[in-house]
């Protein structure tokens, strides 16, 4: 190659490379550039610039060709992504289409992906809860997976650090199972949510209904203004990308922050084929990418590498990074890489009605979505026939009753009526699942993607513990609803495949013992000290809290450690 | 969400799947280009007359003023399964036959009152087991009804002049008096 001269190698050499630009990659980029490292951010998809690349963000409902509905041809061509709740006309351009990026489902798995700068941080549901020692001590106490190599005290200051920058709204509820954070004002519970919260508090000593904590700027601080973000305008159109930067996304926050430092280079359309390992040096020296458009292979070099490709793709990159030293994937002396994958069980819901509080309604929109019920099962001790537990969403609402019956002028009159329904209430389950060796991802031996990279084979399923936990969720929430005087209670259980929760985790888990884990307590590979994995792949267990805030905290903590080690000459 | 669910439910209640072939149509082209549905100008006019009966021009605009019949066709063409599209065509013929049997006229030649009466009689036939009207006819009508109302309540006119849609509310009041909401 003519351009492979010394200058070219120099041009392709950085202090750090970050693979992925989403929820955790954006944080890695921000932290590394804040510390002065010349950082290359690799993104396999296109660039999505804040505001500029949010084509639907200011569109009115009537401006959508099909008023939001996806055309049938697209639905039928994309059975997987079409099952995602947010795959509609206003945000479909931020989702991976099934045919473009095939994978092998050894067992049914709905793999929902966002291949662009910002990744799924544009699309997430923005719920942000800290994990507690009831989560980090879980595997050791209950005898599954391996012990987490950290405890809450190790991560707590980093939660505070990322919360201040990202902007998290919530109340200080004083619950040991859901530690308080650095909060902006909470979005309050409405009349019936408050009623239920008070009722539950009076009836159960260990159950709480609190305002959902979310990554919205209810009241921005200077650090948010400095990012170019302003107050959340309660539009609830977040999945389109927010022109106000009202919720946290890598696009509105960490990526532009990193670029503003002058130390970052962002390279979209860069599909990482593998991490390059140098046997003589005993460390990784860079990555090889395939340009998504030209299919040209290009190598980039750096002293440290952060892998933030999103949980399952991080596994794919590591498994595909083979060498004489690591024939089964980078840093995989333990043989556990790709294994112990788990997710969250969202497959149960309950709805009901409340015949009261009819003088009250709400006005405007609540971006937090309503209430949150932290895990109350098996918290202090094992008390059921299943391990772990579930958190629950809870919300109450009234809707416009505009009868569609009839035709003509009476129908026109009905359609502008202001009458509201009575209160409806609903809850959904968010259950922890147990990581197991046989829940795994691997490279398919024959099938490849359009860049010649092996397709990922996914083999993850529910188990008996999930079934028992779901039964308990339905029983307990039904009891709580009944006790609160709710009527017409209907529990439903859907047959969704794992993956649709979009909370897949594990495969490159952290642990104390290099024989049974891939990463140490700093998210650093046991076997390759200059490679760090700080996205969902690193998680030893799943808790039942939403994971993104924890990825952010782990990333900032690992970046701080990595730069310290680099400066000491240890890596 | 509720709106979409309502449309689907209406289609489910009123209609069902049919696998009858669409008739060959050579009676003129419709005014908008359709990719998947073979509709002629007469059928388009019928859809327009039905939509106008559902949302008539009064002191405020009606379906034709707002182009709702074209929206119905656009949605039919893009957002329905092939079975539903075929049932729609079959149902259009059955509808004309049912009108002819009852009034000995075309729908276009009925009085406004007769048109409403005809449509209301279909809406009254809610029992899925009923054979008063064929199921394709009910799919045909269900799609027009659902999408006419969908198009109307999501039209710029309706969302700026009737029930105002706020793109940027800028507020969330968790406890708000119902009476005040009604008089807003």
Short description:
The complex is a heterodimer of chains A (571) and B (184). Chain A is of the alpha/beta class and 571 residues long.
Tell me the layout of helices and strands:
The complex is a heterodimer of chains A (571) and B (184).
Chain A: H1 6-11, E1 13-19, H2 23-34, E2 39-42, H3 72-77, E3 104-105, H4 133-136, H5 138-142, H6 152-166, E4 168-169, E5 183-184, H7 191-203, E6 210-211, H8 222-226, H9 254-260, E7 264-267, E8 270-278, E9 283-291, E10 297-307, H10 311-319, E11 339-342, E12 344-345, E13 348-354, E14 360-364, E15 371-373, E16 390-397, H11 409-414, E17 423-432, E18 440-448, E19 454-459, H12 464-483, E20 487-493, E21 505-507, E22 531-533, H13 548-567
Parallel strand pairs in A: 1-2, 1-10, 2-7, 3-19, 4-5, 10-22
Antiparallel strand pairs in A: 6-15, 8-9, 9-10, 11-21, 12-17, 13-17, 13-20, 15-16, 16-17, 18-19
Chain B: H1 2-14, H2 41-54, H3 68-79, H4 82-103, H5 112-124, H6 135-153, H7 156-162, E1 172-177, H8 178-182
């Amino acid at each position: 190659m003519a351009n492979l001269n010394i200058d070219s190698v120099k041009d392709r050499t950085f202090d750090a490379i970050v693979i992925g630009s989403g929820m955790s990659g954006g944080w890695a980029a921000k932290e590394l550039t804040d510390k002065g490292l010349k950082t290359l951010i690799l993104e396999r998809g296109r660039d999505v610039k804040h505001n500029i690349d949010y084509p639907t963000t200011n569109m009115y409902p009537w401006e959508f060709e099909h008023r939001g509905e996806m055309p049938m041809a697209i639905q039928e061509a994309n059975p997987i992504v079409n099952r995602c709740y947010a795959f509609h006309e206003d945000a479909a351009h931020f989702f991976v289409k099934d045919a473009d990026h095939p994978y092998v489902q050894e067992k049914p798995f709905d793999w929902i992906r966002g291949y662009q700068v910002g990744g799924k941080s544009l699309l997430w549901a923005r719920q942000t809860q800290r994990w507690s020692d009831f989560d980090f001590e879980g595997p050791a106490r209950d005898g599954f997976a391996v012990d987490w190599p950290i405890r809450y005290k190790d991560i707590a200051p980093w939660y505070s650090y990322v919360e201040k920058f990202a902007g998290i709204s919530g109340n200080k509820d004083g619950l040991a199972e859901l530690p308080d954070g650095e909060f902006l004002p909470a979005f309050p519970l409405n009349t019936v949510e408050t009623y239920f919260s008070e009722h539950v508090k009076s009836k159960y000593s260990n159950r709480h209904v609190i305002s959902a904590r979310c990554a919205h700027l209810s009241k921005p601080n200077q650090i948010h203004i400095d990012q170019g973000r302003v107050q959340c305008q309660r539009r609830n159109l977040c999945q389109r990308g927010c022109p106000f930067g009202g919720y946290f996304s890598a696009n509105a926050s960490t990526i532009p922050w990193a670029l503003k430092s002058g130390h970052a280079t962002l390279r979209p359309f860069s599909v990482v084929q593998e991490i390059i390992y140098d046997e003589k040096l005993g460390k990784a020296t860079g990555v090889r990418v395939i340009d998504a458009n030209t299919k040209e292979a290009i190598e980039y070099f750096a002293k440290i590498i952060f892998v933030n490709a999103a949980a399952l793709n991080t596994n794919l990159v590591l498994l595909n990074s083979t060498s004489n030293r690591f024939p089964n994937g980078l840093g995989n002396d333990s043989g556990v890489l790709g294994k112990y994958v788990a997710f969250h069980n969202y497959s149960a819901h309950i709805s009901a009605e409340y015949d009261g509080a009819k003088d009250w309604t709400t006005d405007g929109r609540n971006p937090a979505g309503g209430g949150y019920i932290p895990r109350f099962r098996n918290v202090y001790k094992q008390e059921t026939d299943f391990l772990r537990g579930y958190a629950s969403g809870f919300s109450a609402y009234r809707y416009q009753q505009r009868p569609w019956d009839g035709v003509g002028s009476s129908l026109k009159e009905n359609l502008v009526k202001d009458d509201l329904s009575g209160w409806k209430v609903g809850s959904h389950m968010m259950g922890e699942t147990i990581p197991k060796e046989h829940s795994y991802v691997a490279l398919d031996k024959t099938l490849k993607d359009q860049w010649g990279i092996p397709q990922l084979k996914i083999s993850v399923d529910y188990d008996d513990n999930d079934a028992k936990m779901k039964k308990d969720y339905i029983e307990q929430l039904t009891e709580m609803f009944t006790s609160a005087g709710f009527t017409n209670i209907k529990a439903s259980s859907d047959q969704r495949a794992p993956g649709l929760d979009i909370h897949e985790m594990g495969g490159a888990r952290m642990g104390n013992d290099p024989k049974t884990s891939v990463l140490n307590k700093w998210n650093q590979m046991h076997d390759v000290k200059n490679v760090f994995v700080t996205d969902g792949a690193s998680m030893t267990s799943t808790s039942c809290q939403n994971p993104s805030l924890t990825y952010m905290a782990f990333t900032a903590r690992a970046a701080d450690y990595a730069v310290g080690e680099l400066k000491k000459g240890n890596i | 969400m509720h709106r979409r669910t309502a449309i689907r439910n209406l289609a489910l209640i009123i209609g069902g799947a049919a696998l009858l072939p669409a008739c060959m149509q050579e009676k003129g082209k419709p005014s908008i280009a359709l990719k998947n549905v073979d509709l002629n100008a007469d059928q388009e006019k019928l859809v327009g007359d039905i939509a106008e009966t559902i949302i008539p021009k009064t002191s405020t605009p009606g379906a034709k003023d707002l182009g709702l019949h074209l929206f119905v066709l656009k949605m039919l063409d893009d957002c329905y399964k092939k079975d539903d599209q075929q049932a729609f065509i079959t149902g259009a013929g059955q509808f004309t036959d049912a009108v002819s049997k009852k009034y000995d006229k075309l729908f276009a030649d009925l009085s406004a009152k007769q048109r409403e009466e005809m449509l209301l009689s279909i809406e009254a036939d809610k029992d899925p087991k009923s054979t008063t009207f064929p199921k394709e006819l009910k799919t045909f009508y269900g799609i027009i009804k659902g999408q006419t109302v969908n198009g109307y309540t999501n039209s710029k006119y309706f969302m700026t002049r009737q029930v105002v849609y706020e793109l940027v509310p800028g507020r969330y009041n968790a406890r708000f008096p119902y009476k005040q909401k009604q008089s807003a």
